[in-house]
Amino acid sequence: MVGEMSIELPGAGALDYLPCRYGTSKLLFRGPRRRMEKPYLAFLGGNETYGKFVPLPFPASVEQDIGRDCVNLGCQSAGLDSFVNDPEVLRIASSAEMTVLQVLGAQNLSNRFYRVHPRRNDRFLEPSPLLSAIYREVDFTEFSFNRHMLGRLQMLSPDRFETVRDELQQAWMSRMKLLLNAIDSATLLLWITFDDATDGGPDLGTEPVLVTQAMIDTLKDQVLGVVKVPVAPAGTSDDLGGMVYGQMDAPAAMRLPGPGAHDQIAACLTDTLRAAL
Questions:
Q1: Structural domain boundaries of the chain?
Q2: ∠198-199-205 over CA atoms, to 5°?
Q3: Each residue of 187-240: pLDDT tens digit?
Q4: Assigned CATH topology for domain 2-108+186-276
């Protein structure tokens, strides 16, 4: 069944994202690489902005709709730390006519309880002594990804997990304010929400993980506006047709927005951007 829904490129078996870098940044972005010699919009985000498995991600659709160059700075597995700690990304965003910043989850950033990989922020590196003390029964060497680790902690003790949740949400708000202060251009928040099935594991809630309306509200004075777009993952919305992935990537593709969702996001952004530009 999965084979009937996937699209295989002759001789490749995967989508060519034309990966590229800008300046001194160590992050790998989706191409084609832009020269940015005229007014442009910058799009910062994670897998959804990058357009994983999607031939035409929403930044490219917006570019077609509004006639402005749109630089896709979406990065696979990115969290807030990927951008906060990258001067080149901040320079590009600050030089843009406007920046669209995707709201990313609170699980993928370093905090008082654990440290994440500096670029692939979904990777769990190590717990702090404080987290190890709170969860003495846990062998943290078992975990490679933050979400897997947090799901296990929540399952073991919902009460103790509240302390972890509070820390992540506070760290997220501080990091978001820092990022917005570092971007010297009008910034629009893009809040893409969807339920990410976790293969029967613990439920950490709607994507982006642990982000609430109250948290978004604390940022409203720093942004031009907030565009909230509820979508459904491709696997539950019959939106897999048109996605490009190999057999091994089928589970990941099912959990991400498909082409129809990207069109929906682009339409919502286009209306707001036309009014603002």
A1: 2-108+186-276
A2: 20
A3: 999 999 998 754 445 568 889 999 999 999 999 999 999 999 999 999 999 999
A4: Rossmann fold (3.40.50)
